[in-house]
Every structure is written in C-alpha cells, then in structure tokens.
C-alpha cells in the first residue's frame, strides 16, 4: 500500500484540534478578520459548536465561527495588514461565508501535508479576495496555519478559502488535485 510517510500519525495528533480551542480562555489578544471586511480584536472567552464569545472593549460579542476568515496575534495586526494583498478579481465576486460544507472550496489533507514538510511558499486566496503568502506550518480539520514574511503567524479557517496555489500558479484545491495528484510526486510518498 502506498501512502505519505508520517501522514497518519500527523492526522491522529492534530486533525481534530481547533484554533478556537487553543484560544479559548488563553487570554491572548487576537485580531480576527471577519467577512464583510470587518475586523475585531479581543480574547476568546468561550466557544460553542458554532460560535465564539469574544471579550472586546469591555463587552462580550458572539461571533459565528463561519464569519471568521482568519486570525493572528493582536500584536502583529499592523504587520498582517501590510502583508495581506487583495486579488481584485476575486473581491468583485462578492463571496460571503459558505455555510454548507459541500459547497466550500476544499483542500485535501494529503495535499497539505507534503507542503508542510517541503516548506513550499503558497498563496492562499480567501473568499473576499485577501491573498496570504507564506509557508503552510500546520493544519487541522478546521484551519490552516501559515507563516508569513518575517515569521508572522496567521491561522486561516478552511471554510474561508477560495483558492490555494504555488508561486507558479499551480492549483492545490481538491477539484484540480483530483487529477493532478501532486502529493504522489512528494519524496514522502512511499
């Protein structure tokens, strides 16, 4: 049987973890980029299945998880805003949150795993046109952790992804990789 070396162990360890679980109760000031070109800075007090409760400016806001596109440490907010570019073509599509998982733009786990190991620079485009350039560091069922220029960390929620390409423009979405199967070209594929 052929497989990706270390992939099943990685999935067992990380796949069910959620970035919101890590933030919940940590007290970490976090910058959240939300749909509708909004942002919010606060701390995750608690979470439910579909919402996060964020303490911000002395109050508590309930934010649907599907409204969160990505998040980073609040201390890196200025740097993050400079590093994120906009794809004007995608932004004119006026895409909002996609609630039904079957209609989302999906990246296969076995496509993401070699990208971590090979440290390949990727371009992640979000539904509203934001383009995040960096290395894929980790992923779970719900999110993809990126490391941008200068070591700035950013976590992208998988439901907010529109496209993922390498610097040459090769697509890594499931719809394309169904035929291309780039993970088979990885040195990890045994």
Automatic annotation (TrEMBL):
<dbReference type="InterPro" id="IPR010920">
    <property type="entry name" value="LSM_dom_sf"/>
</dbReference>
<protein>
    <submittedName>
        <fullName>Uncharacterized protein</fullName>
    </submittedName>
</protein>
């Amino acid at each position: 049987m052929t497989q990706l070396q270390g992939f099943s162990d990685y999935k067992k360890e990380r796949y069910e973890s959620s970035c919101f679980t890590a933030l919940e109760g940590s007290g970490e000031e976090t910058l959240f980029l939300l749909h509708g070109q909004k942002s919010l800075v606060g701390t995750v007090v608690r979470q439910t299945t579909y919402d996060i409760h964020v303490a911000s400016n002395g109050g508590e806001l309930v934010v649907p998880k599907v409204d969160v596109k990505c998040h980073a440490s609040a201390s890196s907010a200025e740097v993050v805003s400079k590093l994120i570019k906009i794809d004007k073509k995608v932004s004119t599509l006026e895409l909002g949150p996609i609630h039904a998982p079957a209609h989302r733009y999906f990246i296969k786990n076995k496509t993401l795993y070699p990208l971590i190991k090979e440290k390949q620079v990727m371009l992640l485009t979000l539904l509203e046109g934001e383009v995040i350039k960096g290395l894929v560091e980790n992923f779970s069922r719900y999110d993809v952790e990126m490391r941008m220029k200068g070591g700035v960390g950013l976590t992208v929620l998988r439901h907010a992804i529109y496209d993922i390409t390498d610097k040459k423009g090769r697509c890594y979405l499931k719809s394309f990789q169904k035929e291309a199967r780039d993970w088979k070209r990885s040195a990890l594929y045994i």
